Amino acid sequence: xxxxxxxxxxxxxxxxxxxxxxxGVRVNLTGGSIGKLESVTNVxxxxxxxxxxxxxxxxxxxxxxxxxxxxxxxxxxxxTVANDDAEAEDIxxxxxxxxxxxxxxxxxxxxxxxxxxLLYNAGDVRVDQDGKSTHIxxxxxxxGAYSFNEIKAGSxxxxxxxxxxxxxxxxxxxxxxxxxAISVNFSAVRGFRISG
Length: 196
Fold this sequence. Notes:
elongated; four-stranded antiparallel sheet; single chain; mainly beta; 16 strands
């Protein structure tokens, strides 16, 4: 009986801004006859899988179950094991955040559904030269609550919109640096549009 050598697939998840390894990222490996294996990056952003047979595998990163969330570029890497250990090309991780808020009726305090909320890069024009909105995201409130997810660090404006309501304030500026933005709230006044 001869022993079968197992090979190693290894790689690194790096922060897109600093170039440093990102710790705690879950990494899945699929392909061959293994089904699915999971690893977690160490303090240097390194992960590894072994023992593996010859074959083609996919490396798929995922944000930690809790804590900082990321988007990955690319979302997967393909690596081939051919009678030797294999090094997957780096995957970059970009921190992303969420914006949470509510739209409530100015009189009753109840949540208002069906309000469209538009997300803009702060300082950008709202309509381009062709008359199209330049918003980078939109969502609709449900029972007053809304959220924008997987937003990269930066400065943004949230603007509520509805033909039957005016809003106070008419927009909110949000800075996403190291944490989610919460309580980005608006009051809605039916039949009265607040300007300014």
